[in-house]
Design a protein that fits this description.
Length: 252
């Protein structure tokens, strides 16, 4: 492959990846508890740098570099803004930690603290599927909807002045292993690799996504300009090759 085209093609692939990540962040800007993704890259070494064989390259081309390649997406765990709701069952996590919820088959992690009780008095997440919110010992939480309920900073649920359960709040031993499951949900390769979190809860609040739409839009426009620049470079090189082959190299 012609080296200039290779570099431009790697730029298109890298910026397409970045564009997808930013677009997903913008799509979830209103998803409570969502953590924005970060597109990361590294500079690919030239063949001479990778092999140590300086005779495999041209000294002038070495200065161009080996292009850019994408790395695994990282999760920005920064705190999102807290929004007051006035609902006693809504709680926001302040610090590093996740709630655990289950649909009866799989357990997931989330920062979305919009809770409610179902017809059986079970504490569930206010989503279409209504996953059960788990206690600190991994069990579903059952409440009496007729009693006054408050949630303390440590997650203890109190009804009519008596503690009845404690909301589980956990953290990942290795945050880099967190995997997005869509929207506000995450998981780990081994869900047993979670430890109790020292974060606190704030009752009657929810945590919004830590996405700043203005920043994401600015980065998206920058990425689109880089995509266009790389595409133009491929077109210019193709036109130059066409002239070299069909005009300059013509005999007679």
């Amino acid at each position: 492959m012609i080296y200039g085209m290779y570099l431009s093609a790697s730029g298109i692939v890298a910026n397409s990846y970045r564009q997808d990540v930013i677009s997903n962040n913008l799509a979830n800007a209103e998803t409570n508890g969502f953590k924005r993704d970060l597109a990361t890259f590294y500079a690919r070494p030239t063949e001479a740098q990778a092999t140590g064989r300086s005779d495999w390259s041209n000294p002038l081309m070495e200065k161009i570099g080996g292009g850019i390649l994408g790395m695994p997406t990282l999760v920005d765990s920064g705190q999102g803004d807290l929004e007051e709701t006035g609902n006693n069952l809504d709680v926001a996590v302040q610090g590093s930690g996740f709630f655990t919820v289950s649909d009866g088959k799989t357990t997931k992690l989330t920062r979305d603290g919009r809770f409610m009780t179902d017809s059986d008095g079970m504490l569930i997440l206010s989503t279409a599927r209504g996953q059960h919110v788990l206690s600190d010992d991994g069990q579903p939480i059952k409440l009496d909807p007729t009693k006054q309920t408050t949630i303390a900073e440590d997650g203890v649920i109190v009804q009519n002045g008596k503690p009845v359960s404690k909301i589980g709040l956990f953290d990942a031993k290795n945050p880099r292993e967190l995997m997005k499951l869509g929207g506000q949900f995450m998981s780990l390769p081994d869900m047993k690799a979670i430890t109790p979190s020292g974060a606190t809860l704030r009752s009657q609040f929810i945590e919004r996504a830590n996405v700043d739409p203005a920043t994401e839009l600015t980065q998206l426009m920058e990425t689109q300009r880089q995509l266009e620049a790389n595409a133009n470079m491929i077109r210019y090189q193709d036109q130059m090759l066409d002239k070299l082959v069909n005009q300059v190299g013509r005999i007679g």
